[in-house]
Amino acid sequence: xxxxxxxxxxxxxxxxxxxxxxxxxxxxxxxxxxxxxxxxxxxxxxxxxxxxxxxxxxxxxxxxxxxxxxxxxxxxxxxxxxxxxxxxxxxxxxxxxxxxxxxxxxxxxxxxxxxxx
Length: 117
Prior knowledge:
By secondary structure, this protein is mostly helical. 79% of the residues lie in helices and 0% in strands. It has two helices and no strands. The protein has helices at 3-89, 95-100. The longest helix has 87 residues, at 3-89. The termini are far apart. The mean pLDDT is 83.
């Protein structure tokens, strides 16, 4: 009778090996699926971040360009005003007084210099 359990154990060994291989294969397949899904999610998130950063950068560039244009237009307007005052009165009005009274922005201090300095 001892040969039957030995023979039964030998018959069960391939079945246990087959079950172990199936479970191992399923675990590897599950790991591969999770890995692929995570990789796809990371790539998608990276692309979304790049697109968001590109849009933010474009908006900042537009804002800076608009600010620069406004500043140049203000400088142009200031120059025309000083030129007009100079041509009309012979000499510009007291630019320092106009600056103190707030006619010009604090980052623009007008100065008029003639040929004599």
